[in-house]
Amino acid sequence: MGEKLREPLRELAECSLPAALEAMGERWSFLILRGSFNGLHHFEEFQSELGIARNILANRLSRLVEHGILKRDALPEDRRKIEYRLTDKGDALLTTMLALRQWGERWETGFSASPVLVDKRDMRPIGPIQVQAWDGRVLTKSELIWALPEDVVGDMPHAEAAE
What we know:
The chain has helices at about 15-25, 25-35, 45-50, 55-65, 90, 95-110, 160; strands at about 70-75, 80-85. By secondary structure, the protein is mainly alpha-helical. It has a two-stranded antiparallel sheet with strand order 1-2. It is globular. The two termini are about 25 Å apart.
């Protein structure tokens, strides 16, 4: 990656990777997000399932809400009880979480984690997360280069979402 153009690493203020890591980039936030994907919604559930200190949990939940990854709602039947739910922005992190999990299984732990994520239709494990071209072809690192926005053919898929 980089035959024509190198990614401008010095311009970190304009780079989306540090912005994403600022929102999510620490262990407890990822574990809370994983818990959310697995149906946890209440402070007490997160606390007991993750074994996280209450002050750290409160801080991380507030941060995830502040970044629009989780939404915080009081339950109508008991306004003192708070529920945390993934937003569309939070749901969009699923692919990232799966890619990191698969990377960890391959390069860090060396074994598949349990439970295994499967396709609900046929109960088969999901395939590896892969980089795909606009037409669905799987791309390898050697098939990728950085390009300036004005050199990109067609619309960039994430450009509309950022506006």
